[in-house]
Amino acid sequence: MGELILTCDRSDELQRYEIRRDGPDRWTIVDTLTSLPAASNGRDLIGLTQVDARDIADELNRSLAEGRDPLI
Question: Model-level pTM greater than 0.90?
């Protein structure tokens, strides 16, 4: 199975956080600057449902766009 990467925000802008399928029905939020899983509170954002991953990645990208630190 090929790797599936989705951008989350529906705008045309490049997004820092994207979601990537990492197994059957499991998704990871990827920081496109590092190509590594995003992390919050010492926890990698991996093994999420697609809905949760998309919602979290959208909020991280929205926080960045508004000038807030997205991972606090």
Answer: no
